[in-house]
Amino acid sequence: MNITDFEEARARIRPYVKRTPLEYSESLSKRLGVHTTVKYELFQKTGAFKARGAFNKLLSMTEEERAHGVVAVSGGNHAQAVAYASSVLGVDAVIAMPENTPQNYLDATRGYGAKVDLQPSIAEAFAKVKEYEAAGRVFVHPFDDPVVIAGQATMGLEILEDMPDVTDVIVSIGGGGMAGGVAMALKAVKPDVRVWGVETVGADAMAKAIEAGHPVDIQITSIAKTLGAPAVTERTLDIIQKYHESVTVVPDSEAVEAMVFILERLKVLTEPSASCTLAAAERLKENFGPDTRLCLVFCGGNSSVKDLCGYIKNI
Question: What is the pTM of this model?
Fold first, then answer.
């Protein structure tokens, strides 16, 4: 993957996705002590960045492949993105999802016209995909696919165009596709940009893989379900190790505290998978200085008010 792949992906998906805003935040700048902006990817189609990769994948498929339909596996945001892209492009879609998926994600995915196949766990949902592939459907992987990664990378190009002086970007890691793609796009244009990854405790497959030196299976216990990849892959592990400064792991409690601050001060309801970037920024403060120009990526906003009330009550 290179800058040409990212530019081609941007041209391909431009008619179907939003160019999300990047804005300076006085509240975050005061809290962190450095000039801080937010990339509001939660305003993307379906409420998260995933539409970029989903459209790039489906638009790159042949007519024959589309005619056979697609299958995806997801705990939420990827499901909605594939369902939405499939609806727009007239492709039949089945999404394998874990039974503990929040109801609002299930409703939205079905609302876009996809069939939902509930499985006991995310790992079993991945296993179920093999049956659909054997029947001829194309698997739209949530992160381990160069075409999907190139679609997510288009966000990095937008960040640089709207903030040419950016020095540091903090981005969440689920399976590593978006975090890796954004980092590659940023560094392809501006090599000295530093990219910092963040996960939550109990959804830290990348941090565990870095520690072990290879992908490892984990049990998802974090409330940040959309970060809940049961394992990363060799591809995404390699990208993160090469292009990220580090991976910070924060507890759910810090992600929720940040989530509340963002809602009260910036007036947007994020997911824990997005608010954890602010929690990570707090822990990374010693790496920043007077010349820092920081960007936090708010990758998704599909939490419900009920979710937020539950997070506050239980943490």
Answer: 0.94
User: What pLDDT digit, counting tens, does each position of 122-148 carry?
Assistant: 888 888 999 999 999 999 999 999 999
The residue with tokens 């009260």 is: 264
Full set of structural domains in the chain with CATH: 3-49+145-314 (3.40.50.1100), 50-139 (3.40.50.1100)
- Cα–Cα distance, 293 to 167 (Å, whole number): 5
Residue among 83, 76, 68, 85 nearest 17 (CA): 85
User: Poorest-confidence range of 63-72, 111-120, 295-304, 305-314?
Assistant: 305-314
Q: Using CA atoms, how far apart are residues 298 and 256, in angstroms rounded to an integer?
A: 14
